[in-house]
Design goal:
The structure is a homodimer of 218-residue chains. A 7-stranded mixed sheet of chain A has the order 5-6-4-3-7-8-9. A two-stranded antiparallel sheet of chain A has the order 1-2. The first copy, chain A, has 218 residues and is α/β, with parallel strands linked by helices. The first copy, chain A, binds a DNA duplex (30 and 30 nucleotides) through helix 1 and helix 3.
Chain lengths: 218, 218
DNA sequence: ATTATATCGATATGTTTTTATCGATAAAAT
DNA sequence: ATTTTATCGATAAAAACATATCGATATAAT
């Protein structure tokens, strides 16, 4: 995943929109369509048409055609290539509780280039069970196993109180990217990529939009 | 939640950072501290000091003092006020499966001004059970119950295939904001606030960062 | 009392992202 | 064959966001 050059030349904002385009294009393709116009995508996805056109221009290997638009198959290939959906990267998840099992069960991560090869938990009840095909190991073996498996990505789905120490162990095991679902800020070396999945932040932004809408109505 | 004026004048980027400040400030307060400087916050949270100072200036009701910084208690009050953490808004969640129960169990939403008053599912096994104190109702009663409860926010935690119809029903029931955890783009009226929790997008951004880091090392 | 200093607030600059405009062009319609 | 039109690509302007700089100032140290 992502260990290619392509992803580097694409803006962060665009990268964030690619998965949505990908789903949309897959749908259109399944519906038998061959081309899309930026205007149609923009309308359906409620985005600005110019923005979409620039995004599609980055993705597409060939120029769009007036009156026709872009080739759907080509766009999908482009996103696959940029996001590395064609080659899979291994990851481990720590925390096999509610959120952890939901994430593993959520499935489809493999379609996004992520292959969860192991789960970890410190609850004896959960150790040695399987979670959607993924075996749950003892947290005590985390560092050793992560190092042995040569895993680059770690997912943290443990309570806030345990998150920092788990993160430290993941780094010790050689992980270079951390996807953090615990509501805490992790203190980590600068050369580790971190993405915090901050539910409270999402909720705050939703609230802002709601406030704007309700306010515009009075 | 958020049904106040304050949230309107604050930039979206700042809004997204407020929950992290809130957690940080609560920690500091619990540790017995009374003031923080923007430089300290910036260092601990790995943010730019000027950015933090501007954020804190928006939050704080009084000016910061040289050598001392800002009052922690005042900042917390400010965030509570802006994000509406002091007055709680009701919400319902649809989908009591893995993700749904994880979200309800994730708990702490009430601390973020969100009170989940009901869950819905169409699986007879789940109907009439309780999920962390929240009763699971039959999806068939969704529209009627949501309308009766006068709920403004709906959380969608159902499989992708069911998400659009659930969203339509929520809107029919009077919901004005939708927090969507299903990996699909929802087509909804313009006067409904939507926040998509797009795991694939998060993963894409994490991958980009990882690619940048790995690339800078060779 | 005086000086040193951490921090603030304000202003300015830079960067990223979004949005607007418009001529060019390929397909469709006449 | 000619005209119309949807869409593109390019350029430019605007908006949002981040970062740099610096004088002012309240506290702490001398």
């Amino acid at each position: 995943m992502g260990n290619n050059q392509d992803i580097q030349n694409v803006s962060k904002a665009t990268i964030g929109r690619l998965p949505a385009y990908h789903r949309y294009l897959k749908e259109k393709m399944a519906a038998g369509e061959r081309t899309v116009s930026s205007t149609a995508v923009a309308e359906d996805l409620h985005l600005n048409a110019v923005k979409v056109r620039k995004d599609l221009a980055v993705i597409s290997s060939v120029a769009g055609k007036p009156k026709l638009g872009f080739s759907i198959a080509d766009l999908i290939d482009g996103i696959d290539r940029i996001l590395g959906y064609d080659n899979v990267t291994d990851a481990v998840i720590v925390g096999a509780g509610g959120l952890g099992s939901a994430l593993v069960g959520y499935g489809g991560f493999k379609a996004y280039g992520l292959n969860i090869v192991a789960a970890f938990d410190n609850d004896p009840e959960r150790i040695d069970t399987t979670l959607g095909g993924v075996k749950v190991f003892d947290s005590n073996d985390l560092v050793r196993l992560v190092r042995r498996l040569n895993v680059l990505i770690g997912i943290i789905a443990v309570p806030a109180s345990a998150a920092q120490s788990v993160a430290d162990e993941l780094v010790e095991g050689g992980v270079r990217a951390i996807w953090n679902f615990a509501p805490v800020h992790l203190t980590l070396p600068a050369n580790i990529a971190v993405k915090n999945e901050d539910m409270a932040a999402s909720l705050a932004i939703l609230s802002k939009r709601l406030a704007e809408i309700l306010n515009s109505e009075k």
